[in-house]
């Protein structure tokens, strides 16, 4: 085969590869909500406070040892080790420069449901937009109104400590194609209480992000929903909270989410203690709704 033919073949392969890469980059580009997605929605900061506590914002974005009103100082800084690197919670306080004080409701909605920053970049899924994608836009608008009332903190966000190739965010578009799914995990005929519990567990409270095992690419294994798995730092395990393991009554579950005490008089520890501080602020009927939902989840031994 002559040299000119080989050159043409090589150039054709290079061109095909370039076209293929361009197509992939276009398909997986960060994409926000339609411009009119929030039209007609009126913000209510009081309702937004319930969304704030249900969503666990303070558990990650306040200081780990914060108490009382310090829970509303959302300067970030908590570190979350994982197989992909160490992620650091950013400042989401009301500071206009270091925090999200300049964000619009649409900015927050794009971040929470599409994993897209105001600058048009992919967020890492350590920010649980995979669960928040099931949230109603009304709740997000209300949450934005509440976040406008929290204190400003001028501390800059620390960068994530993520090495190659995970520091290349373009690849996150492919991750989203595989795993970003706003469909409910638990389907079927649910009571209004169970439906509310599903919304809290699968969307706002993002319980599955910890209690569901992940595959090699960090995607949730939905066929083992809430069955527990190793912690991202590899030093422990999240418990199985399906009926196959968790045999507490609905009242027991609701009490644990209120006080942190188990039926055996043990108490919540670690990051779960921070979660309980959030769920304790929810209306009692929401804690009972979570308990009712957990009883409907398919049991996994």
From TrEMBL:
SUPFAM superfamilies to which the protein is assigned, alphabetical: Cytochrome c (SSF46626)
Transmembrane residue ranges: 9-27
Keywords: Heme, Iron, Membrane, Metal-binding, Transmembrane, Transmembrane helix
Domain Cytochrome c: 43-151, 192-298
Superkingdom in the source lineage: Bacteria
Protein name: Cytochrome c
Family matches, as Pfam families: Cytochrom_C
PANTHER family: ALCOHOL DEHYDROGENASE CYTOCHROME C SUBUNIT, BLL4482 PROTEIN-RELATED
PROSITE patterns from the UniProt entry: CYTC
Keyword Membrane among record annotations: yes
């Amino acid at each position: 085969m002559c040299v000119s033919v080989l050159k043409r073949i090589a150039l054709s392969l290079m061109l095909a590869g370039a076209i293929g890469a361009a197509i992939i980059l276009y398909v997986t580009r960060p994409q926000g909500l339609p411009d009119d997605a929030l039209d007609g929605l009126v913000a209510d900061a009081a309702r937004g406070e319930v969304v704030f506590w249900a969503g666990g914002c303070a558990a990650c974005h306040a200081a780990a040892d914060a108490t009382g009103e310090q829970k509303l100082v959302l300067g970030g800084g908590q570190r979350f080790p994982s197989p992909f690197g160490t992620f650091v919670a950013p400042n989401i306080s009301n500071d206009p420069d270091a925090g999200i004080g300049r964000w619009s409701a649409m900015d927050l909605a794009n971040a929470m449901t599409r994993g897209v920053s105001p600058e048009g970049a992919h967020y890492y899924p350590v920010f649980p937009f995979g669960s928040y994608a099931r949230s109603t836009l009304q709740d997000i608008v209300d949450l934005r109104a509440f976040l406008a009332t929290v204190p400003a903190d001028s501390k800059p966000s620390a960068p994530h400590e993520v090495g190659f190739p995970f520091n290349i965010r373009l690849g996150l578009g492919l991750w989203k194609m595989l795993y970003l799914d706003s469909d409910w995990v638990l389907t079927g005929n649910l009571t209004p209480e169970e439906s509310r519990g599903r919304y809290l567990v699968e969307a706002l409270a993002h319980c599955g992000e910890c209690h569901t095992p992940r595959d090699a690419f960090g995607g949730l294994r939905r066929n083992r929903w809430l069955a527990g798995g190793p912690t991202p730092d590899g030093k422990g395990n999240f418990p199985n909270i399906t009926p196959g393991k968790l045999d507490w009554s609905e009242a027991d579950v609701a009490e644990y989410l209120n006080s942190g005490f188990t039926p055996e008089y043990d108490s919540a520890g670690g990051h779960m203690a921070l979660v309980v501080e959030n769920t304790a602020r929810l209306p009692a009927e929401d804690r009972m709704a979570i308990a009712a939902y957990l009883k409907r989840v398919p049991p996994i031994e």
